[in-house]
Amino acid sequence: MTVLRSTLDPAGADAVAAREAMLEALAGIGAETAKAVAGGGAQAVARHQARGKMTARERIELLLDLDAHFLELGALAGYGSPFAVGGSVVAGIGVVSGVECLIVANDPTVKGGASNPWSLRKTLRMHEIALRNRLPLIALVESGGADLPTQKDVFIPGGAVFRDLTRLSAAGIPTIALVFGNSTAGGAYLPGMSDHVVMIEKRSKVFLAGPPLVKAATGEESDDESLGGAEMHARVSGLADHFAIDEPDAIRIGRRIVARLNWHKDGPAPTPAQPPRFPAEDLLSIVPPGLKSPFDPREVIARIVDDSDFDEVKPLYGTSLVTGWARLHGYPVGILANAQGVLFSAEAQKAAQFIQLANRSHTPLLFLHNTTGYMVGKEYEQGGIIKHGAMMINAVSNSTVPHVSVLIGNSYGAGHYGMCGRAYDPRFVFAWPSARSAVMGAQQLADVTYLVSKASAMARGKPFDEDGAQVVRTMIEQQITAESMPLVLSGMVYDDGIIDPRDTRDVLGVALSAIHSAPVQGTDAFGVFRM
């Protein structure tokens, strides 16, 4: 039997403490997520709706198939910045006319939907997801253009938005723009570079320069409608492919466009799925508070894979890394999960071989992070930890099967890289509220800084200020602790969202379904492995 067993006692003291800590963290994340859902706030939303307009989220809800899922991505972008949480953009994966699509909607209740550095970073990440997973892109457009006070952070990198649209189109991935309001200046190129464009009577305004700027530049008198209105673009310029009478009509037309795409998935279809044998509710009770003790990742795997069925590979070798095969919502996956945190030479070599096997069988890989990095010390350096860690990173870097990463616990140092961190282009990255990620643990980093400063003073023959060094040490530990928290990292769009552990299986199911919109193909071409 390959069905996993569980030793978790949900009523035990450790499990209860873990659950309480996780629920407390989820409450804090929920409060921040509520800010994103609120958009520009009650007053701004009321003003917007008084104009007869739907909010970005209402537009998405009407666009989606009845009772279809919507996996929101990057919901906490901009957290900790001067900008509204969410980055004035709502984005995610949803089903439209039976087709999984990547949807990006400007939130006009936040500074008129103006593009700021965080909305730009989020939008570019969404384009990357659409391109790599072969997802049709639907843009719900209503934006006043760039946030001018931050134009230096938006203008130059912002050109990639339009570049991406043309690359998606060139790759045969449909791009659809439903224009609900302003799309001005550089933003006019968003519908201009989309495959399908829908504009709304007396609502859509698409022009490179509005009437005041045209008058200032050329002396010409004009009005919004003749310069860039929907009827003009439908009758005269030809920019509009479809002319809608109101917002619901535009959404109806958008759904019909998707229905006529004749779209199909290029990846293999899933087999019938079976639920895990253990309840998802238990996932709240596995990770110890503060990550102060190890936990068995098999307890997580047993609650997310089909029938809790897991074929483990090399279970007696490199035991601080669990590797094996399973199915998740009917999709085959290879799983790499950290067990005891530290990666030794055996674990690195085990991972490299397993990644090669996954590529031979064209099987997507799921990385469950809880690592403090590769082992250090004279014995391990002499044993080849550098070349073995490099072997694992080489395999991850050159693997071509889709990767998905979930940061469950620690994800520090080069171990973060070896486990396919954000820089290694996983198709999706998600985090639990318990996740932590940095160059090393906060206490270790503070200790290193303290020891280096002390050694430097002694080497120069100068007195060492112990009290002052301890103050600095404490400040650094507090800083790194704060910076390694999932809210901060998610705010920087270093992941695609912080998820409730109980939702892990379904979130991964949507991600795997999206991944299989594109071909799933492994490789046998890797860099030189140092032996």
Automatic annotation (TrEMBL):
Occurrences of domain CoA carboxyltransferase N-terminal (ranges): 22-273
PROSITE patterns: COA_CT_CTER, COA_CT_NTER
Transmembrane regions listed in the UniProt entry: none
CoA carboxyltransferase C-terminal domain span: 275-525
Organism encoding this protein: Paractinoplanes durhamensis
Protein known as: Acetyl-CoA carboxylase carboxyltransferase subunit
